[in-house]
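Hi, can you check this record?
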Amino acid sequence: MTAYPSLHMIIDGQPVAGGGRRTHAVVNPATGETIGELPLADAADLERALEVAAQGFRIWRDSTPQQRAAVLQGAARLMLERQEDLARIATMEEGKTLPEARIEVLMNVGLFNFYAGEVFRNYGRTLVRPAGQRSTVTHEPVGPVAAFAPWNFPLGNPGRKLGAPIAAGCSVILKAAEETPASALGVLQCLLDAGLPKQVAQAVFGVPDEVSRHLLGSPIIRKLSFTGSTVVGKHLVKLAADNMLRTTMELGGHGPVLVFADADVDAALDMMAASKYRNAGQVCVSPTRFIVEESVFDRFRDGFVERVGRIKVGNGLEDGVVMGPMANPRRPEAMDRLIGEAKARGAKLHTGGQRIGNAGYFYAPTVLSEIPLDAAIMNEEPFGPVALINPFSGEEAMIAEANRLPYGLAAYAWTQDAKRQKRLSREIETGMMGMNTTMIGGADSPFGGVKWSGHGAEDGPEGIMACMVTKAVHEG
């Protein structure tokens, strides 16, 4: 059985703890018990991290593709070797089931191996010019990156935040979530153990607003990468504007799912019910608003409720558990507020809608239907185990509802009509679209949104390019 490790920051390759620093209690969401005390950075720690990151950039920007590839591939191998320990730590910190946490490790392995190949494909170009002239376009690492990762994917989010800058030749200061620090430290340690120079990547924790203001206010930082809520993202973009930092922002969503009468309803139910309650619904691309054509509404709603009834909720370390607890006490409180308000406005509750047990942060998988569009839960990302199922009449009304909100991260559609699939892929305002599938991500595929869901992309070639600047050089 994996023991929960002692906690620290990593600056210049060394663990940083103690010294009278403030601490944050890390809690196991399945039990509500404190499992670790995390030291929080003070201003001196952040200044030291910045100084080391500046040194690290000078070292790593001149590294060869072979060196960067070797580190990324080595880290991927180590994560695979340490998969079980990393997964168990992530489950203890965040609550997700152990099988989900194991998959998260494999996501990092795939991404790091892809980036290890992509470093050799970061081509520039030579422009056509008259004899005696030469013009080239090259890509260069942007500089030290401040990367902020949330708690919902405690391994995958740090992997994204570290992998892209390192592949591009940047240094990076990672501030992962204080709720899930050991997972992030485990990913970074794999990189360091694989030969990453100690100056290239640092891990700090602290009061979020203190850390963000300090790092983003420094002239050393040249890029902000953030995954999290739209509210916090907007705040950070404003801070980043003062130093004209480049930004990659992967923000909130409110995933619409369009289900048409010609869809394979059973296939849609099987995939979407499983996807909805993955990680207790605490997924930015979680399918949430089910926009169902009227003629199949009753069948879809009843089938969804029936499948939800089979979900086993419990400690994510236990065999057979399909859904673990929510990650922190704020999330059940949000569920109670949003679901209660929707019911007061006339929404129908079919199952769930309440907490489970007296220990930990468990919440019952919930299904609401016929929810008024002005209910808060139809406009505010619930980020929890609740499905919202409403009937609509016809394609035009369904598209209008899908695009009604200012979010545009992920959308899904179920239809067998090939022409309609083309129309939907064009008309739905989203960064990622799943057509008769829930598989919308991959190491080689850009991950990002539009509108209030952010800008820029992670993963794929785009993930590395987001950490590069383009330079044109003209020679006479």
Observations:
- The two ends are 66 Å apart (CA to CA).
- The chain has a mean pLDDT of 97.
- The domain at 9-251+453-475 is CATH 3.40.605.10 (Aldehyde Dehydrogenase; Chain A, domain 1).
